[in-house]
Each structure stands twice: as C-alpha cells, then as structure tokens.
Amino acid sequence: MEDYKNVCEDKPTEPANEVKPAKGKHIAREYLESIVIAVLLAMVIRTFIVQAFKIPSGSMEDTLAIGDHLLVNKFIYGTKIPGLDGRILKIRSPRQGDVIVFEYPEDPTKDFIKRVVGVPGDVVEVKNKRVYVNGKLYANPHEVHKEPDTVPKEYNPRDFKDPVTVPADSYFVMGDNRDRSYDSRFWGFVKMDKIKGLAFIKYWSWDKDKMRPRFNAIGKLID
To answer: What share of the chain is helix, strand, coil (3-state, %, to 5)?
Structure first.
C-alpha cells in the first residue's frame, strides 16, 4: 500500500495534457490555412455539388417569383470536369418536368432557368397556347397564362409553333409563365453541356414590393 500511495502522489514535471500558447506567426499561419481550406471547400462545393442562384425575372411565375433564391444540384446530371469533355458520376439525365439552370445559348455569360418540356427524340408542337409532345397534350399543372390575346405564328412562335424534333443531347425548355417567357419556342434547344443543374429548393425569398421575406416560400421544394 505504501508503494501504491507513493506512485499516485508523484507529479509529472510537465502535465501530459498541457497546451502551450502558440507564437504569433503560428497563429497567423493557422488562420491562413483555415481560410485557404474554407475557400477550397467552397469552390469544390460550388463547382461540383450545389450552387446558389437568384431569380431576377418573372418567366417562371408562379412556380418561382422574382426575388427567390435557389439551390441547384450540380451533380445529378453528372459532374463536369474543367478541361475535359463529357460528365462523370452521372445519376440520371434531365427529364420532362425538371426545372433546370443553364447557360443561355445566345449569351453564355447569362444563366437562364426553365422547365424541360421535350427530351431527345420528342416532337414538340404549340397550338393555340397549348403544348403537345409526341402528339399528346402536355398538361403541366404549373403552367399559367397571363395574356388573354393570341399571337398569330406569322408574328412570333409564342402561341403557335410548328412541330420540331428535339435533337440528340438537347432539350426543349419553356417557362411556366408561358405568355411572358423567352425560351425554346424562340431560340431553339439547350445542349446538355450547357446545363448547370437541377433547381430543387428555395432557401430564401424576398418580396421587394412589400419589402419583406416570403416566409411561406423559404425551404419549399421546387417541383
């Protein structure tokens, strides 16, 4: 018992769990390393996993309102590797009804958001404001019409468009606000390599007219 007591009462000259204060330059280096890691992680997430976008126009009303902030899934259609063609780790291809973000074909510096109406091989036609895919009416529950007039196809293809076949690796897209959307009826198809991802949730929404958040939209899934 005497030996045990002596062993227990021995005090190490330097506690094993003691933490010594770091020198100034070490603290600065640790902060710098943390910042670099955070930036790299943010870049990886933004490039390959998820990216935030803001809705600036009303072409997707009432599904998406001006001031909605969205998160876009960037890996579901496959990950694009800078400098390489194609995509890797693809989960699935875009489907009819998906709301996608893509580079506007006529100006790649701009991002557009629309709903997929036709996939490769589909025949899309617009007759008297109604959309037909492969000869069948495409009745999208999110579709709205806010203009009572009908525009003859001699003026523009908004309400009447002759049948077109969607090419391979391409998609026909339209805004849910059909009368106020500049989309595939006017400028053609979206190539797969221009698609950035699938919009899936609203994480914030600001009503600039009422100067307040739209709390009922925050956290709402996009369908």
So the answer is: 20, 30, 50
